[in-house]
Design a protein that fits this description.
It is a single chain. This protein is α+β, with helices and mostly antiparallel strands. It folds into two domains: 2-152, no CATH class; 186-469, UbiA prenyltransferase (Tetracycline Repressor, domain 2), CATH 1.10.357. Helices cover 51% and strands 19% of the residues. The protein has an eleven-stranded antiparallel sheet, with no helix packed on it. β8 (89-94) and β9 form a beta hairpin.
């Protein structure tokens, strides 16, 4: 039984399971390493093989996912012949009858000691997805780069890998109803997880509706601008996620929650990601062109923050500052979009959203802190540690002070203050109840911020509706 992983026109890795592993180095030298045992795990078309040396060291971990064929027994997964046909066919052994499938390309991602390969048919259908992870041993030539040392620390058990795969499939939701080749791109945009879009939209809704109240704008004008910003939030949040995954492709494979993301898992190549990002940015440009010129320039000025946010988690423990700065840009943009330029009102509302985002995104970061430490990813969750809840209370106090200041200067009515009171209760209650050492609980309270954002908006909306109709 053999695994063959191609790199352009030459074989760079061959695992021969019957007692030995052979490595082909760049200088064409090879070395044989004895294997103590090989463990197989086969389920739902997914084959994983774990090879160990006589000293008990893990030498290689091979993950193979088959698509469009029936799941088969591990002993029948591959025959003794090479799976890769040099003339462009993928040889599958299903049951006792091997068959060949033509393919148009083999997409590979090689990062130090981690290789991923995705085989795509001429019809664009993903047939097989490989991941090979090698580990340094006493008898195997060591990888000496700093990043490869980091990679060896990010080893997941077969159970963790399987759980990550099943979790991704479970979370696809409505995406399961779309063509399979669309799904990775929809996952790049996080369409199956709309919470980010809704959180991005909330400050825009506050600003647009507050500006509508201040100018007594017609309802249709306000609804039109809310819809424009809704489309913009959907598209630009998707573009931001694509940029994040492109930056983090060599970090996402070190965190269990992100190891199945499209780029780091090899289902979308960097070239494809660039093309897809360009398309999203063109749509975003179309949305901005619906706004007045001065508003267009203010919106475009946020793109630098959007593009550089992923970089900051590598150099500072406060990447949430950058995220919060760009994630609440709609609180500034919504006012001029409605023809209102009032900086004393705009700035406090923007700062209110900023402090809110610092709060909920730090809760979000607490989900991954165990893996972030190993991967070298920085966040406020790690910087604040056990002091997080004390700081959360300070952030909520600052948020509410700014929110109330903005509403007061805008001349808002009683519904605004009622919404602010309910929203404040939800913020401080969240801080008290969230278990920062429980990822599932962090996710629950993170999602609850959608409702909190809507509570703040409803207070503004009711004041606006009362003003224009009564």
């Amino acid at each position: 039984m053999g695994f063959y992983i191609p790199d352009c026109d030459k074989m760079v890795y061959k695992a021969k399971f019957g007692g030995e592993i052979r490595n082909f180095a760049d200088d064409e030298s090879l070395e044989w390493v004895k294997i103590l045992d090989v463990d197989h795990l086969m389920k739902d078309g997914l084959l994983r093989v774990f090879a160990k040396t006589q000293d008990g060291e893990k030498l290689a971990e091979v993950t193979e996912k088959m698509y469009g064929v029936e799941a088969c027994q591990a002993t029948e997964a591959l025959d003794s012949k090479p799976m890769w046909n040099p003339v462009g066919a993928l040889r599958l052994s299903v049951g006792l009858r091997p068959k060949a499938i033509a393919f148009s390309q083999v997409r590979t991602l090689w990062s130090d000691n981690l290789r991923r390969c995705a085989v795509v048919s001429s019809q664009g259908i993903l047939h097989r997805h490989f991941q090979v992870k090698t580990f340094t041993t006493k008898t195997k030539p060591a990888l000496t780069t700093a990043s490869s040392i980091a990679d060896t620390k990010s080893v997941f058990s077969s159970e963790e890998l399987e759980q990550a795969r099943l979790q991704r499939l479970k979370g696809l939701g409505i995406l399961k109803n779309f063509p399979e080749k669309w799904v990775p791109y929809m996952e790049l945009m996080r369409i199956e997880k709309p919470i980010g879009t809704l959180l991005l939209l909330s400050p825009s809704m506050w600003a647009i509706t507050m500006a509508g109240y201040m100018s007594a704008a017609p309802l249709l004008s306000t609804l039109w601008m809310l819809s424009v910003f809704g489309v913009g939030a959907f598209v630009m949040r998707g573009a931001g996620c694509t940029i994040n995954d492109m930056w983090d492709r060599n970090l996402d494979n070190k965190v269990a929650r992100t190891i199945e993301r499209p780029i780091t898992s090899g289902r979308v190549s960097m070239k494809q990601a660039w093309v897809f990002l360009s398309a999203q940015m063109l749509v975003g440009l179309g949305v901005l062109l619906q706004l007045p010129l001065d508003c267009f320039l203010l919106g475009a000025s946020s793109l630098l923050l959007v593009g550089t946010y992923p970089f900051f988690k590598r150099v500072t423990y406060y990447p949430q500052v950058v995220l919060s700065a760009c994630f609440n840009w709609g609180a500034l943009l919504g006012f001029p979009a409605m023809g209102v330029w009032n900086w004393p009102v705009m700035i406090p509302l923007y700062l209110s959203g900023f402090f809110w985002c610092m709060h909920y995104d730090t809760i979000y970061a607490h989900q991954d802190k165990k893996f972030d430490i190993k991967a070298g990813i920085k966040s406020t969750a790690l910087a604040w540690g056990t002091k997080s809840k004390t700081i959360f209370n300070a952030l909520s106090t600052a948020q509410m002070s700014c929110f109330l200041t903005s509403g007061y200067l805008a001349g808002m009515g009683p519904f605004f203050y009622l919404g602010a009171a309910v929203g404040a209760y939800r913020l401080f209650s969240m801080t008290k109840k969230v278990d920062l050492d429980n990822p599932a609980n962090c996710w629950y309270w993170f999602k609850e911020n959608i409702n909190t954002g809507h509570v703040f908006w409803l207070g503004i909306l009711f004041d606006y509706l009362w003003k224009i109709f009564f």
